Amino acid sequence: MLLDREGKVAGFYRKVYVFWSENVHAGREGVKVFDTDFGRISLLTCFDANFSELWSEADAKGAEIVFWPSAYGGGAPLNGYAMIYGYYVVPVGWGNIIDSTGVNVASVEKPRDNQFVAAIDLDRTFVHKDYTADKIARLLKEHAGEVELERDCKMEGWNLLRSIKPACACATCAGNTKSKRCRNTATAAARKSPSAETQASASPRTTKAIRCEQTGVPPS
């Protein structure tokens, strides 16, 4: 169940793949995405972690964060999905908020037991290096002091860019210079598709970081 800031139900998700012993009916609506005031999110849960097609569909529909409540920790597969699809994954209750590079966010606050809070940057942007080096160089020159190269992913053939000025959207800068974003095709198509379920109007994002909270009690 997804609740908005006023505590009202903004949407729901029923897992597509139920655990063997649950003896319940699987959801028929498939993977959903929801446009919020901070970005587009998706919900997957529990046994869904074992079926990569669901995580691929969340990517195809433009999810920027996948929230994954469950009775167990999930572990390495969740890091893999985050890396492959370039979105954040927020499981429940273990403190492993996973960024879009597949790495657990290091700076996590713990206000109380089993509560974890971190700032995440939804504007970090992967761009392909092949045939676009001149465009990336132009982007970094034109937006010096606004956008920087965070990481040169040599084996993958990517550059990871990030905004260092809150009012500057890194993804927009990449589009303006026609630098090929790694998620550009699927995400852009999803954002224009009327079939993607939305529950609230998304406002333009001018700041790059949001506060993400993870709460839950991990199993013993």
Feature tags:
Nitrilase/N-carbamoyl-D-aminoacid amidohydrolase, 2 domains, 3-stranded antiparallel beta sheet, 4-stranded mixed beta sheet, globular, 220 residues, 5 helices, 23% strand, alpha+beta
**Oligomeric organization of the protein chains:** single chain
Number of helices: 5
Largest sheet: 4 strands, mixed
Number of beta-strand segments: 11
Strand content: 15-25%
* CATH fold assignment of the largest domain: Nitrilase/N-carbamoyl-D-aminoacid amidohydrolase
Mean pLDDT: 81
Q: How many domain regions? A: 2
What is the helix fraction of residues, given as a range? 10-25%
Rg (C-alpha, Å): 18 Å
Shape, principal axes of CA atoms: globular
CATH architecture assignment name of the largest domain? 4-Layer Sandwich
Summing up helix and strand content along with how strands pair, one would put the structural category as alpha+beta
Look at the structure and name the CATH superfamily of the largest domain.
Carbon-nitrogen hydrolase
C-alpha termini separation:
25 Å
Structural notes for this entry:
By secondary structure, this protein is an alpha+beta fold. It folds into 2 domains: 2-121 and 190-215, Carbon-nitrogen hydrolase (Nitrilase/N-carbamoyl-D-aminoacid amidohydrolase, 4-Layer Sandwich), CATH 3.60.110.10; 125-183. Helix content is 20%, strand content 23%. The protein contains 5 helices and 11 strands; from the N terminus they run E-E-E-E-H-E-H-E-E-E-H-E-E-H-H-E. The protein has helices spanning 52-60, 76-85, 133-142, 170-176, 184-192, and strands at 2-3, 9-11, 33-35, 40-43, 65-68, 88-91, 115-121, 125-128, 147-153, 158-163, 209-215. It has a 4-stranded mixed β-sheet, with helices on one face. A 3-stranded antiparallel β-sheet has the order 8-10-9, with helices on one face. Strands 1-2 form a two-stranded antiparallel ribbon. The longest helix is centred in the middle third of the chain and has 10 residues, at 76-85. The two termini are 25 Å apart. The relative contact order is 0.17. The model is unreliable at 184-208 (pLDDT under 50).
